[in-house]
Design brief:
Blueprint lengths: L3 E12 L13 E12 L3 E5 L6 H8 L7 E6 L2 E2 L5 H10 E4 L13 H12 L4 H15 L15 H13 L5 E5 L7 H18 L2 E6 L2 H7 L2 E6 L2 E7 H6 L4 H14 L1
Parallel strand pairs: 3-8, 3-9, 6-7, 7-8
Antiparallel strand pairs: 1-2, 1-4, 4-5, 9-10
Helix pairs in contact: 3-4, 5-6
């Protein structure tokens, strides 16, 4: 029996069009349309598709930042959409996000140590001494030095900032990380080091990961499973190797043809 950490069933998100006598009637916009997706414990599942297909909206629904119009999102078998405020608070310790842009995701007025301590203080994870011990372990894993903790975000490069953002996502010891285009804002030379860091941390901390990207070359390197999204629907899901060697859906074939033509 598959051991799923996340199960998404028939999820829909609709943005209603606003009509008036001055404007013609518009159709409602289905951003997510009947999405079904399962993520196994311990795997890296990459969600791929062109911009605007609904990838980030799906991630925000899983994080409970956006409320879907219908469907279910099960975490360890429990529907998060029915969670109370207390249950939601506890759930957010278990699922964390690495955002796309490291230049805007860190508070410029806070020192790095305060940025990293803040989630632990809010969730009252342990004593201050234990928090600092864990923080020192974590920054060593993510390649940040102790002296960096007293600095502000503007004193770092984009790659260093993303390491800090990764550390922040991990301070609460989550079970699953959602990484939304985590290297798209970085120089190509830095991307590989960040991806390798994520793979190392995934193994060390026994993480499950939902990796969102439009870059098929990138997801080929790190994915266990790939789900392809088109116009708000999952059109194909299969092990990474199978997607590249024997794609079934025409849209998947189209995406693969694009990277192959670029690489020629």
């Amino acid at each position: 029996m598959d051991n799923f950490l996340i199960e998404i069933k028939n999820l829909e998100k609709i943005y209603k069009s606003e009509n008036s006598f001055l404007t013609p009637k518009k159709e409602d916009n289905y951003v997510l349309k009947g999405v079904n997706l399962n993520i196994k414990k311990g795997e890296i599942l990459s969600l791929v598709g062109e911009s605007g297909c609904g990838k980030s909206t799906l991630a925000n629904c899983i994080l409970k930042l956006i409320k879907p119009d219908c469907g279910e999102i099960l975490f360890d078998g429990k529907n998060i959409l029915n969670f109370s405020k207390k249950e939601t608070f506890e759930y957010r310790k278990k699922i964390q996000m690495i955002f796309q842009n490291p230049y805007s995701s860190l508070n410029p007025k806070m020192k790095i140590q305060d940025i990293l301590l803040e989630p632990m203080i809010i969730h009252k994870t342990s004593s201050k001494k234990e928090m600092l011990i864990w923080l020192e372990e974590l920054i060593e894993m993510t390649g940040i030095s102790k002296s960096d903790l007293k600095k502000y975000p503007h004193e770092f490069s984009g790659g260093q900032r993303q390491r800090i953002a990764i550390a922040r996502a991990l301070v609460l010891k989550p079970e699953i990380i959602i990484a939304d285009e985590p290297v798209s804002a970085l120089d190509v030379s830095i991307c590989a080091t960040i991806i390798n860091l994520l793979l190392e941390l995934k193994e060390k901390l026994n993480l499950t990961m939902l990796f969102i990207s439009h870059d098929l070359n990138l997801v080929r390197y790190l994915s266990d499973t790939i789900a392809v999204m088109d116009k708000g629907t999952i059109v194909e899901k299969a092990p990474c190797r199978e997607i590249f060697e024997n794609p079934k859906d025409e849209y998947t074939k189209f995406l693969l043809s694009q990277i192959r033509s670029i690489n020629v």
